TrEMBL record:
PANTHER family: PHOSPHOGLYCERATE KINASE, PHOSPHOGLYCERATE KINASE 1, CHLOROPLASTIC-RELATED
Main location: cytoplasm
Signal peptide start and end residues: none
Localization, UniProt: Cytoplasm
GO terms of molecular function: kinase activity
Binding residues annotated for ATP, in chain numbering: K201, E323, G349, G350, D351, T352
The family this protein is said to belong to: Belongs to the phosphoglycerate kinase family.
Pathway assigned in UniProt: Carbohydrate degradation; glycolysis; pyruvate from D-glyceraldehyde 3-phosphate: step 2/5
Enzyme class label: transferase
Protein's name according to its UniProt entry: Phosphoglycerate kinase
Known catalytic reactions: (2R)-3-phosphoglycerate + ATP = (2R)-3-phospho-glyceroyl phosphate + ADP
Gene name as annotated: pgk
Residues reported to bind substrate: D25, L26, N27, R40, H63, L64, G65, R66, R117, R150
Record field: transmembrane: none
Originating species: Castellaniella denitrificans
Amino acid sequence: MTIQTLTGLAQSGALKGKRVFIRSDLNVPLEQGHVAEDTRIRASVPAIRLALDAGAAVMVTSHLGRPKEGTVGPDDTLRPVAERLAELLGRPVRLVADWVGGVDVAPGEVVLLENCRCNPGEKKNDPELARRMAALCDVYVNDAFGTAHRAEATTEGIARHAPVACAGPLLEAELDALGRALRSPRRPMAAIVGGSKVSTKLSILQSLADKVDQLIVGGGIANTFMLAAGLPIGKSLAEPDQVDQARAVMDAMKARGVEVPIPVDVVVATAFAADAPATVKDAADVGPDDLILDIGPRTAAALADQLRKAGTIVWNGPVGVFEFEAFAGGTRVIAQAIAESDGFSIAGGGDTLAAIAKFGIADRVGYISTGGGAFLEFLEGKTLPAVAALQARGASEK
Ligand code: ADP
Ligand code: MG
């Protein structure tokens, strides 16, 4: 299905003098009122530049954190983001509060509209709010892949009412790269799903089990799989109520002739702490007071070997508590193997991106998605509501 793009509109000269409303993802971590990490702001700059250079009057908004609707608390304001954005653009960025009723902005100017999640009705996609916001612009641009799996007023409702609705370059690139990797993946295709909980990733595990040639689990998720395999896991983070589901995923892979590899060795500690002494144990030897905080070196080496031979790798979730150096070894080995693989790798997830940054492999990953939940839902083959809204517009206007 076709989606109009900001790039296409800019090239055709259709943006000159037009009011362009861009929904970006500027949800960055803050520390003491300053932007602690600005990847998402930098990623949002190309769309804003494109609209400015094409002669538009540019309004940009984003959510930040999880504010209470109806108020803008001190932690909710996009002011620090406006400051950083101004530095990156090399021009002033005015922050506009109370903007739903009208925005003063001239062609060649860019304003940042205060945290859109402070507007009552944003989260539940209130149609009246969406209509009022759509009335602010001639062209609506969605450039926020990270929230595309949520139908909210600035991501979905507005796209239905704005005179023109299109995808920004960041959203376009995500859909292209992920779509290509999934439509015709080079085989064998391996997925590695780590992180803390099976319950939050069960549907991605189930759907990957239908698509991939190898399914690797790690982190707290692997603990639940170890439990399902009848291994002792002591006091490790695990979800006993997900054991049946884990077993079903193992069976689904087995029916296709492959095993979900279960760790043969692990790194344990007796406390969840950065300075807790780390001990490598065989999987069968985990004691009743042990916490499994990483996969062991033999397991990591075997998994790395599989990953190096893959034609396509999908990675979400660290395989251990990589934030603590003593338990970062497994994730480091996996990250290195992904970097060294000749296959096309795609990675996404908040903590996965942190691990990629920590191990310095960003430039050797085929594609790094900015989405967490949206990345996972896209991989599952689900329709992202914000994308569907753009597709519906694209189809009706062609
Ligand atoms: P992502 O954000 O990439 O999707 P998750 O949020 O699912 O990843 O999980 C990341 C978290 O899982 C990390 O904070 C990491 O410390 C934690 N984790 C990984 N392995 C374990 C483990 N064995 N025990 C407890 N926590 C773990
Ligand atoms: Mg996370």
